[in-house]
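Model: You mentioned two targets. I'll fold them one after the other.
Researcher: Yes, keep them separate.
Model: Target one:
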Amino acid sequence: MGHFSSLVFIMILVGAAGGVINYYTLSTKRASDFNLLIRFVMLGIFVTFLVPFVLSVFGSTLIVDSEGDPANLLNYVAICLAVAISPRFFMSNMSDDVMAEARLTSDKVDLLQYQLRQLQEELLPLIDTETEDDALAEAIPVADAAPEELDNTSSKVLKTLGCGRFIYRSLSGLCREADTDESTMVKTLGFLTLKSLAGKVGGRKGVRWYITERGRRLIEIGA
């Protein structure tokens, strides 16, 4: 009976010590939360009282052998302490897994937001082109964009933008279709953009050029 009481006392003491170790290792609140400390201590004591059951399942006679044998008793104390602080490793690994999953999810969300912004930038010109504007429903003032304001090169580039198979045109494709060198094409596109007749957008494939609704109406007027 005396040996049994000693084992119970050891399990309570070691379990409480393991709970304190877990509390100061895992808790960020430290000694500011007494209730949390009590929960850790109770958990440590609870798991320690599972040691005899586990030993019996594996057929160990350590509990019986520890009576009158200090070496086996110390082994039993070590096993109890290891079991008492075991939730620390479980909770630490689980916390690391949760944090890693949270970081991975955050990275995926950031990537998705970036892709959505890219897609939005690419679609906005198309939406503007295909959406009727009340202000544009009226005749375009001659002073703003009369056909005679554009030279032959500008008119040719504008028509190339509006008549191509693609909505977003590359610089090389425009140069090839308009039979214009790259330097002249860049200047012409800059002029058309300044006149709000053309625009550019950056996408996954680089900078692309497109014709605006004002540019399309100008082509119709000059046709």
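Model: Target two:
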Amino acid sequence: MRHCIYPGTFDPITCGHLDVLERAAKLFDKVTVAVAESAGKGPLFTPQQRVDMIRPNLAHLPHVGVTTFSGLLVEFCMAHQADAIIRGLRALSDFEFEFNMALMNRHLEPKLETLFVMPNEQFSYTSSTLVKQVARYGGNVAHFVPPNVAEALRTAFAK
């Protein structure tokens, strides 16, 4: 069974993330969405809130699960017997950071492959950061995130 890990902060998950996830689900027998706790990044949502936002969007993908992790990604991957890491590339600007991270992960664990997946071009400019900025000022984010996430953003910024 081929297993990949799709790591990220997912604060919040976007339609672009879900597009990459759907593509990974076609390539692997098992996919684990690994939500990084990332306290240092100052996320808007707690790790459990992010998991709870992701889970309903996986219902049609029975071989995809979601969990949280902290620490080194390669250690998490090896503990879960993963064969690969999936990373989404929206634009050329993402490549340098992702390439360096992939090389470091390969240095730490040579058996673990990193695969880059491009989302549909309609999501190439979408990021969690931009979605939060639009939502913070009352903009409509319905085209960028699933409905449950749009509602969570409205609630978070209504406070």
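Researcher: Noted. Anything on target two?
Model: The chain has six helices and five strands.
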